[in-house]
Amino acid sequence: MTGDKYTLLPPHLPADEPPPGAVLADLGKLDHINTYGDLPRYYIDYPFTCIDCGKREVWTALQQKWYYEEAKGHIWAVAVRCRACRRARKAPESCR
Ligand SMILES: [Zn+2]
Question: In this structure, which long-range contacts are made by residues 3-11, counting pairs with CB atoms below 8 Å and at least 24 apart in sequence?
Fold first, then answer.
């Protein structure tokens, strides 16, 4: 990855006041992210288009919270593939 020199948050993690329906971030669970204060304060639903099949899907605020706080995902990682394509990549044809 080449995102090391960036200091701004990804576009789906705004630094403004949380809008209605936002899921608040638990900063205590984001201590694996070393960005000197640029931690997300909340998550909001993030619509995206799958780079593999072109399907439009929503990466929900709760999925983001789980990904960053429980799965300890990298803060720069955003959803780029729909659920079906992610599953297809994890389970090769030979496994069926
Ligand atoms: Zn897809």
Answer: 3/76, 6/76, 7/35, 7/36, 7/38, 8/38, 9/38, 9/40, 9/75, 10/75, 10/76, 10/78
What is the per-residue pLDDT across 38-47, written as a single tens digit (0 to 9) for each? Answer: 788 899 999 9
pTM for the full predicted model: 0.74
Q: Where are the domains of the chain?
A: 23-90
27 Cα–ligand 1 center, Å: 31
Q: How far, in Å, from the CA of 8 to the mean position of ligand 1? A: 28
- Ligand 1: centre distance to CA 44 (Å): 21
